[in-house]
Amino acid sequence: MSVPMVHARGVRKHFGHLEVLKGIDLDVQPGEVVVILGPSGSGKSTFLRCVNHLETVDGGAIFVDGELIGFEASGGKVRHLRKREITRQRREIGMVFQQFNLFPHFTVLQNVMEAPVGVRGAPREQARERAHALLRRVGLEDKAGSYPRQLSGGQQQRVAIARALAMRPKLMLFDEPTSALDPELVGEVLATMKGLAEDGLTMIVVTHEIGFAREVADRVVFMDGGVVVEAGTPADVLDNPSSPRTQAFLSRVL
Amino acid sequence: MKELPEIDVAGAARTRHPLRWVASLVLLVLAAQLVSLLVTNPNFQWDVVGRYVNAQIIGQGIMTTLLLTVIAMFVGVVLGVLLAVGRISENPVARAACGLYVWFFRGTPVLVQLVLWYNLSYLLPEISFGIPFGPEFVSADTNVLITPLLAAILGLGLNEGAYMAEIIRGGLMSVDPGQTEAASALGMSGARTFRRIVLPQAMRFIIPPTGSQVISMLKATSLVSVIALADLLYTVQSIYNRTFQTIPLLIVACVWYLVITSILYVGQSFIERHYARGATRNQPQGFWSFVTSFRRRPMPTPEVPS
Ligand SMILES: Nc1ncnc2c1ncn2[C@@H]1O[C@H](COP(=O)(O)OP(=O)(O)OP(=O)(O)O)[C@@H](O)[C@H]1O
Ligand SMILES: [Mg+2]
C-alpha cells in the first residue's frame, strides 16, 4: 500500500487545563475525501489546524505525505522544527476557512497570485495565467479585478478555494466552508468542492452538510469530546451508526 | 373598519427651523465683526506682515522647520514601528523594554527632553563606542557631537517614537487575526505576512492619527527656539526682538504654519484614499478621477455587486 497522505496517531492537544484532543487516529489515502462530523466544541477545527501546524500538537504525531509535521525526529530525539521549515511544510497543504479570510486590500486576482509569486517565486505572467484559469474553474473569471468586499459570501469562498489551489497543495483542509453563508449560496461552494473531489484532490472537510458527506465523501468520521467515535463509509456512519452518540448527533442535524 | 383618507405626500411643505436662522444670523454678525476688526485695527500692521511674509530670512526659517519636521517624523515612525513590533512580540524582555520606553518618553515633557539632549555634555562629557564594559574604539567630545540640530532631532524624534509606537500598535491590533492565519496557511513567512498583509491593512487606522502627529510635530518644532535653532518661530522672534513689531511678525509665522498645515492636510487625504483600497464596497476614487471630476461631473453609478 502507498504512503497515506495523512497519518495521524494519538494526536493530543490541550489549551490550559482543557483537553481538546484526546488521542486522534486518522489515515487519509491519496485522493480520498474524508468528512469530519461532530458537535460544536468536539475539537474538529483544532484537529484540522494541527494538520498544518497552525496549532502545535502536544502528543502523538501527524505525518503528511510521509513527512512529520512541525517536528523533526533524528537519532531517537524529537525536536521542534524552525519557523522556516514549518512555513515550507504549510505550502503543501491548502486551507479554507469558515470566514474566508481573503486579503481585502488585494483584488481577487492579487489574492490568488500573492502566494505563488511571493512564496514560490513563480514568474508573474505565468502566475497570472494560472490565477485566471483557477478563477475560471471556480466560475469567477469576470471578478478578477474586484475587491473581496464587493463579492457575495459564496463568491468570496470560491476565491478562497482558488487562492489555496494556486499553491498546488497535495492536501486541502476545509473548516466549515459553508457555515458563514446564506442557505442559497451554500450550493455553489459545495459544487466547487465536489468538482475538486472528482479531480482526485485529497480533502479533509469539516462540515455540517450531511448531504455533501453522503454524496462526496469516501469516508465519514464522527468526532465527539476529542476522540474519533466512529468512522466508515457514508452509508455505515450516516445510515447505520453503531454508537449512540453518533445516533443522537445525527437525529439532531438530519 | 375606519376609512383611511386618500393622501399623497409628494410636495409636502418643509418643516421650518427658525432657530437655525437665528444661529446663522448670530454667526454672520460675529464673522463680520471679526473681519472689520482685522481690517480696521491699525495695530495688526498688515503692511509689516506683507513686507515680511515672503522675506528671504523667513524662508530659511521655514526650511529649517520643514527639515526638522521631516527628519524627526522619520525617526519617530521608524522607531515607532520597531517599538510597536517589540510590544506585541513573544519575547517578554522586548515587550517590557519597549513598554518602558513608551512610558518614559510619553510621560515627560518634550521641552525637558530637548533641553536634556542639548545639555547632554553635563551628564556625559564624552561619548565613545566600543565593547560594553570593555575597550573603546572611538570617542568624541559630546559638545562637538551634539549640535543644536542633532539635539532637536533626538529630542523630537525619540519622543515622537513613543507616540507613533502606540498608534502603530493600535493599527496592527485592529487587523483581523484571521489574516495572519490565512497568510501562514499559504506558507508565507512572518516578515512577508507583516509587510504584505498586516501593515497595509493597519495603515488605514495608522494614517489619520499620524496626520495629526505630523501637524503636532510641525508646531512642536517651534520648541527648538529654546536651544537656539533658527526655525520659523525663532527667526520671527529674533526679528521682533530688534524691531518690536511682535504682533505682525507672529502673524507672519502663523500664516506660514497654516499654509504648511493645509498642504499636509490635502496630502493626508490622498494617502488615506490609497490605503482605503477594498475597504468598502465602492471603489475609492483615484487621484485623476478626483481632479477631472470638477470638469466632467459624471452621474454617479452605484456599484452593485452581482
Ligand atoms: N486557542 C484556544 N484557546 C483555548 N481554548 C480553545 C482554543 N481553541 C479552541 N479552544 C477550545 O477547544 C474546544 C474545541 O474547539 P474546536 O474549535 O476545535 O471545536 P469544533 O469542533 O471545531 O467546534 P465548532 O463546530 O463549534 O467549530 C472548544 O471548547 C474551544 O473552546
Ligand atoms: Mg470549528
Automatic annotation (TrEMBL), chain B:
Signal peptide: none
Domain ABC transmembrane type-1 as annotated: residue spans: 62-268
GO terms under cellular component: ATP-binding cassette (ABC) transporter complex
GO molecular function, one term: transmembrane transporter activity
UniProt-listed PROSITE patterns: ABC_TM1
Keywords in alphabetical order: Amino-acid transport, Cell membrane, Membrane, Transmembrane, Transmembrane helix, Transport
Main location: membrane
Membrane-spanning residues: 21-41, 61-86, 98-120, 140-159, 220-240, 246-267
Entry's localization field: Cell membrane
Pfam families for this protein: BPD_transp_1 (PF00528)
CDD domains for the chain: TM_PBP2
UniProt superkingdom: Bacteria
SUPFAM superfamilies found in the cross-reference section: MetI-like (SSF161098)
Topological type in the membrane: Multi-pass membrane protein
GO BP: amino acid transport
Similarity comment: Belongs to the binding-protein-dependent transport system permease family.
Cited NCBIfam families: HEQRo_perm_3TM
Protein name as catalogued: Amino acid ABC transporter permease
Source organism per UniProt: Nonomuraea terrae
Lineage, broadest ranks: Bacteria, Bacillati, Actinomycetota, Actinomycetes, Streptosporangiales
